[in-house]
Amino acid sequence: MPIRYTPESVVIADTPAGILEWAARHIETVGIHQGPGLFAGPGRTATLPCWPRGALEVAAGRGRGAAGRTYNWPRIHRARHRAFEALAEALTGHPVDADEHAAATARLRDVIDRWSAEPGRTAADAARAFRAAAHALDAQGLLSLRPSSPPRTPSL
Questions:
Q1: Count of alpha carbons within 13 angstroms of residue 143, beta-carbon side
Q2: DSSP label of 147
Q3: How would you class 130 by CB atoms within 10 Å of its CB: exposed for 0-12, middle for 13-18, buried for 19 or more?
Q4: Which residues, at least 6 apart from 103, have a Cβ–Cβ distance to it below 8 Å?
Q5: CB 47 within 8 A of CB 40
Q6: Using the 8-state DSSP alphabet, how is residue 137 labeled?
Q7: Which one, of 75, 73, 135, 81, lies nearest residue 109 by Cα?
Q8: Are 53 and 115 in contact (CB under 8 A)?
Q9: 113-153: per-residue pLDDT in tens?
C-alpha cells in the first residue's frame, strides 16, 4: 500500500525512498515557493519553508512527531541523510562526497538549495526529482517500505 500523505500525519517514514515519496506528496500539496513567499502560505512555517529541503525535513518528521508515540529517530535520521544523498545525486548526476559528515551534509544542502533556487523551479519539478531519487534507491535494492512495515529480510 502506498504512503498516504497528510500534513497532520504522525506516521513518519523511516526509509530513504519512503521519505522521498512523502516529500514529493508534501510539495505537490503545498507547492514550492521562492524568494519573499518562501515562508508564507499553507504547509509552511517560520522554520520550514516549502521548498525541496524543507519538504525532506517535514517528511523525516520535523514538526510532526506525536507525544506518546515511539519513533526510531536514529533510523529516521540515517534514512533522511541517505534521502539527501540520493536527491543530490539525482540532481547532479553523480555522488556528492566530502571527507567528514558535517562537510558532506553542508555540500548536500548546498546542491539541493542551489537547484531549488533556480528561477522557474516548480513543485512538479521537485516531485519528479524526489521520485527519481527514490526510484534510483529502489533500483539499488533499497526498497521503499511503508513506515510501519518491518524491514524485509532476504529469503535463502
A1: 9
A2: T
A3: buried
A4: none
A5: no
A6: H
A7: 81
A8: no
A9: 999 989 889 999 999 999 999 999 988 874 444 343 333 33
All three cell numbers of 83, joined, read 534521502
Taking residue 55's Cβ as centre, other Cβ atoms within 10 Å add up to 30
User: How large is the average pLDDT for residues 56-82?
Assistant: 88
| Residue 92 or 63, more confident | 92
**How many CA atoms, within 13 angstroms, populate the side-chain half-sphere of residue 150?**
3
Task: List CB contacts of 33: < 8 A, sequence separation 6 or more.
Answer: 40, 41, 44, 49, 50, 51
Q: Which residues contact 64 (CB under 8 A, 6 or more apart)?
A: 9, 10, 12, 58
Cell 512495515 appears where?
Answer: 149
Pairwise CA distance, residues 117 & 14, whole Å: 27
Name the phi and psi angles at 77, rounded to 5. -65, -40
